[in-house]
Amino acid sequence: MSLRFEELDFQETPMGDLTLRKRREPQLDVDVFEVKLGDEYLMSSLFVVAEEELSHLGLDAHPAPARVMVGGLGLGYTAVAALADERVQQLTVVDTMAAVIDWHRRELLPVSTALVTDPRTALVQDDFFALMRREPIETWDAILLDVDHSTEHQLDPSHADLYTVEGLRNLRRHLADGGVFALWSDDPPEPGFEARLASVFAATSAHVVSFANFLTGGVSTNTVYVAS
Q1: Fewest C-beta atoms under 10 Å: which of 9, 144, 166, 202?
Q2: Three-state secondary structure along the chain?
Q3: CATH architecture assignment, domain 47-227
Q4: What are the residue boundaries of the structural domains of the chain, listed by start?
């Protein structure tokens, strides 16, 4: 492996080999943190605009988002963006992979310290998708989800039911009155999913988030769905 790359952690998981690595990007002269699952790149600290916008757009849709759940910890940018909102009093981040939670508890990533030292934060190992199928023990003002590539391209087949009408109804039970659900997607707005979302929630929107991509020399986009 090139000296530009450093493998920070490697774990075998039921969904494939999980790797956290750091590399130096010479064109920008910055350290880049990347996560791979098997042969797939899951995330990179080079591109976090849409992950942060997931929090901004989701929380802006609620007048007082005191209690927030984030599904999918990843590099931590969605969670830390939520903590930047002073209205948030409690933040629970759910991730199925113990290794990812451990990365942050070991403060391996750029935002880990801000995340784990904030007394409002709780990191919980659980299957978010299974959690949404259960009867709610407590409810949330906002649920922010960033796990799958998109509503049509899931990391695991067991996630697919969340994006159905029944799955969205199950998720809605976990929201307090006036609660907001926001979802990150790597794909453009998907009309079929927008229709399902609108059949379950009173108000819905799909925001296309643009950001510069120096690798392509152009502009890339992600989508953030917001439903309340």
Answers
A1: 202
A2: CCCCEEEEEEEEECCEEEEEEEEEECCCCEEEEEEEECCEEEEECCCCHHHHHHHHHHHHCCCCCCEEEEECCCCCHHHHHHHCCCCCCEEEEEECCHHHHHHHHCCCCCCHHHHHCCCCEEEEECCHHHHHHCCCCCCEEEEEECCCCCCCCCCCHHHHHHHCHHHHHHHHCCEEEEEEEEEEECCCCCHHHHHHHHHHCCCEEEEEEEEEECCCCEEEEEEEEEEC
A3: 3-Layer(aba) Sandwich (3.40)
A4: 5-43, 47-227
* Maximal CA-CA distance, the chain: 53
Map tokens 């599904």 to a residue: 71
Give pLDDT tens digits for 184-222: 999 999 999 999 999 999 999 999 999 988 777 889 999
Task: Tell me the pairing of strands 90-95 and 121-125.
Answer: parallel
Low-confidence ranges of the chain (pLDDT < 50): 1-2
pTM: 0.93
Q: In one letter, which amino acid is 147?
A: V
Which residues on adjacent β-strands are paired with residue 115?
none
Sign for the pseudo-dihedral over CA of 39, 33, 221, 85 = positive
